[in-house]
Amino acid sequence: MKIKKTLLYLLPLCAMVSCNKYPDALLVPDEEPLNSSGIESTDNVADSDLFHQHISEGKVASLTYDPTLDYPKNRGLDFQKHYRQYETAMSEKGWQVKTMQFLFNSPTAVTVRTAFSSAKGATLFWADYDFTLSINPANGTTRIHRGTVKGNTVNNLVGQLGSVLPAFDQHIAPYLTKSSFHPIRLSTYIYTATDKQVSGGLYTNDDIRNGIFGTWQLR
C-alpha cells in the first residue's frame, strides 16, 4: 500500500507527541503539514498556527483570491460558489470580475477590493468596500464586520455604482459578515524572500476545507 508523503512526514512526530494539534483534514496530497518549516525565524511570519498574530501586529498586507489559480487544491469550494454567483451578477451588468483582495489596513480594518473590467474593454477598475476586523488573540477567531461609514476614495465611489454594488451586497458581503474565520498559512511553495508571498487563507466556521484561500502578501 502506498503511503502519502504527508503521512510519512508525520509518523516520526506522532511517535513523540500527540498528533491532534492539527485536524487530519488539514493535509491534502502535495501539500506540506502546517507545522513544517520553510519560513526562517528571521522573517516576518514564522509559525503557521499563529498567523493571526502577524495580522494583529501589522505584518500582513493582503490576501489575494484569484479564481484562475488551482492552488490550494480542493479548498474554499463554499466561497467559490458565492464568488461565481458574484461573477454572474456582475456579468449581467456588463462587467468581468478578475480578482478579489483583502487589504489589511490596520489590525482592526480591512478593505475588500474587487478588480474588474468592462466586458469589451481592457481597462481595469477597482471597487473598494471597507470593513472592520476583530481577532480573538487567544484562538485566532476572526470576524469581519461591515463598516458603518463608507469611504470616499475613487475606488469606494466605484463600488457604490448602481451596476456594481448590488452584486457585492448580495453575494459577497453576507458570506464575509456571517462567517467566523481563522487565518492560516498552508505552505511555502510560492514564498520568495523578495516578494514575501505565501499560500494560505481564511478558513471558516472551523472547517479547514471551506473559506477563502489564495496568496498572502507579507510586509
Tell me what the structure shows:
There is one protein chain. With 219 residues, the chain is α+β, with helices and mostly antiparallel strands. It has 2 domains: 1-36, no CATH class; 38-218, no CATH class. Helices cover 24% and strands 33% of the residues. The protein contains 6 helices and 8 strands, in the order ααβαββββαααβββ. The chain has helices at residues 5-16, 51-56, 77-91, 154-159, 165-171, 173-178, and strands spanning 60-65, 95-106, 109-118, 124-135, 142-146, 181-187, 197-204, 207-218. The protein has an 8-stranded antiparallel sheet. The longest helix has 15 residues, at 77-91.
Helix and strand layout, with pairings?
Blueprint: H1 5-16, H2 51-56, E1 60-65, H3 77-91, E2 95-106, E3 109-118, E4 124-135, E5 142-146, H4 154-159, H5 165-171, H6 173-178, E6 181-187, E7 197-204, E8 207-218
Antiparallel strand pairs: 1-2, 1-8, 2-3, 3-4, 4-5, 6-7, 7-8
